[in-house]
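Q: What structure does this chain adopt?
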Amino acid sequence: MLKQANAISEELIEWRRDFHMHPETGFDVQRTAGIVADELEKMGYRVKRGVGKTGVVAEIGEGGKVVAIRADMDALPIFEQNETEYVSTIQGKMHACGHDSHTAMALGAAQLLAKEKLNGRVRFLFQPCEETADEEGKSGAQRMYDEGAVEGADYVIAQHVDPTSPVGSIAINEGPSGGGVDSWQAVIYGKGGHGAYPHASLDPFVMLSHVIMGLNAIISRKLDPFEPAVISIGAVNGGFTENVIPDKVELKGTIRFTSLETQKKIREEVTRVFEIVKILGGNYELNFLFGGLPLVNDKTVADMIEAVGKDLLGEGNVHPMHKSLGAEDFPEFLKDAPGAMYTLGTRIEGREVYELHHPKFDLDERALPIGTAVLAETALRFLRS
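A:
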C-alpha cells in the first residue's frame, strides 16, 4: 500500500497545493467540497453532498463491516507569511493546521481503496468547520453526526499532521489523548462611582480579583492531581477611563478536561467560585457553552494503527502520542463507534519548526503518501479481520 501511495505522490501534492492556495473557512467550504465530491464520484463512490451543511460523505463496497475515515477541510482566518509557489491566494485565510493535506491524503486513500476488492464498506467523512462553530455553537463534526454520517460504522479513524515530528513517523496510543473543551462567559456586577470615593461604590475589579484567585485554586485543590484539566481566562473587559469605577466587568475563558466527570466537577466549582461575588455584595451571570468531547482512543483501533505503522514504516518510527489538552471535534464521531486518531510526522528538516496555527506553518510533502498509505492499509485490515 505504501508503494501504491508513493506512485500517486504527484497527485497528492497537486491536490494539497490546490487546496492550500484556495483556503475556505468554517462551513463555507463549497469549492473544496465540490472538488472532493467530484473526484470521489469519478473513483466510483456513492456520494452525498451537503451533509452537515457542506460536508461530503462517500461510500464504496457492499455489506459487511463499515470503516469510516474522517478528514477536515476548513482553513483558518490567518494571513499567511510563507513565500512558496503555493501560498494562499486569499488574504486573511490560510491552511495553517494542515487540513489541506488531510483532505488530499483522504482522497489518496479513497483512490487506492477504490481499486481493491473490499470485504465490506469504506466510508469517507469530509468535514467542514473543525476550527470553529456555527451560530448555535455546533461544529462540522457535530452537524455531520446529527445527520447520521457515522450511522452503522464499525470503526472510525483519522489522522492529524504533526510539524514537530520527522517525516516517516507516526504516533498513536490508546486512552485519553486530547482534551474536551467548554467555553464560559461571565459578568460581575458591582456599583459604579468616582475613583476618588471607592467607599461609595462596589468595585467589580476587587470582586474579580477574588474570582481569579478562586479559579486558579480549582485545579490544584478541588481535582484529583492525576486528572488532567485546565481553566484559563482569555479576556477581561471593564471600565473606560482612569478615575471612574465601572459598574460591571466581563470575562471569558476556556475549560479543558479528559473525562465528563471532571467536566461536571469543574463547572460546579467554577460556579461556586463566582458565588464569592454575592458574598462581597455584588451579583454575577455565568454561562457555559459546550465545545467538544475529549479524544479517547479505542484500544483495538489504536493497536491496529500501531501494527500498520510498524509494518509500513518500521517499529522505530511508531511512537506514543504527545498528549495535550488541545481540542478536536473528531470525538463526536466516536459516540457510537470505536475509533482513534494518530499523528503524522511532517517536520521540514533544516527549517525552523512552526507549530499548528502559525502564519508560517508548512509541511514536508514527502509525508503525504505515508499518511495516505496508513489510512488505506488500516481500513483494509479491519475489513479483512
